[in-house]
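User: My collaborator sent over this chain with a note saying "see what the structure looks like." That's all I know about it. Can you take a look?
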Amino acid sequence: MSMESSNLWLPDSWQKKPAVQQPQYPDAAALASTVEQLRLLPPLVTSWEVNALKAQLAEAQEGRRFVLQGGDCAESFADCQSPLIANRLKVLLQMSLVLVHGMQKRVVRVGRFAGQYAKPRSADTETKNGVTLPCYRGDLVNSPEFTEAARTPNPYNLLRAHAYSALTMNFVRGLIDGGFADLHHPEYWDLAWVKHSPLAVDYQRMVDTLGDSLRFMETLAGQSVSDFSRVDFYTSHEALLLSYEQALTRQVPRSPGWYNLSTHYPWIGMRTADVNGAHVEYCRGIRNPIGVKVGPTMSKEWVLELCAILNPTNEPGRLTLIHRMGAGKIAQHLPQLIEAVRAAGHKVLWICDPMHGNTQSTASGVKTRRFDDILSEVTQAFEIHARCGSILGGVHLELTGEDVTECTGGARNLADEDLQRAYKTTVDPRLNYEQALELAMKIAGINRT
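Assistant: Without extra context I'll predict from the sequence alone. Here is the result:
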């Protein structure tokens, strides 16, 4: 960022731009008071963690690392429980183990949690039985119950989100620092019901192979390989509610500019990616790495302008384009975007989100995603990037460590009628543990051939 452009930007600059997807709070004074309280609270992440992630994303941009970004579609305050957090971490660690083994490169692990409490919606209101109320926009804003009290935006939720994010981050850091991710003990990562998975034998064989390799390396070195006892782990969320993001945007000693210290890796969704809008204005001024969701309705010109605004100096690791086209549209729309970005000289990290373009509803109206569509989009993405002389540097997934039934297909071939068994999401369907691990194995297989 040039000094001139930096001087023109402040954390509240977005307020001069059109801001969509922002809730309408009935009490403006209460919102202002809450934001001021939030501004005085400690940050959730540090600037040196943000800088370390940016360096790793720069390596993924060059094909030397692979990014695994995953977690809940929308976190809930009620799910801030140690078993649920541990299971979420376990599935990402196990997936990264599979990817490291299959792709023979280091994996950047990024959780969609510790802040993913807000969701964009296609309409401001919802009507049931003749009653119209505000839509549920995530626990950062309101509650899912269809009552006036629950759906009224509550500014106090901003403070609750900060507290629950801090609790989540503290627990994750404690687990990792305590050796939870130690490759010497991969059995720590097992989930109770994984033994019933059709993938259990293949996964155990992989773990045993890695364990043997690690012991061999330590025998040669004559000492323990301590680097394998912990991993780097980062958080991400959609930078949607700008009052919250602004309050946690800080300057730090001995480092120029402003950092969003609510998360390591914020992203802009398609609904808020207007180049003249408030979200792009906010994100252009922070020093974090930034992601932008890119879909089939976005023109080459639109994407190129986003690149120019968000990363005018072509800083390595700064900008990620997360394409979410859908299995049936990716072949038509992605190649021209890749070629346009490359021709313009923009250096970006490309990541595939195979979830959001493949959402559909069953005959009974239940929202779901089909595993075969998800796998198809990822497979096509690798092929298209290779054909265009580009690099697919990661995947962005909505998943959970729980035994839910929200997406159909996979190794157990879940059908539409199976969804009712454990459909728990409040917004979008997620891959369950088995489906997520199977997808990681498929990705590893693609990159071995």
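A starting point for your reply to your collaborator: Residues 272 and 279 are 6 Å apart (CA to CA).
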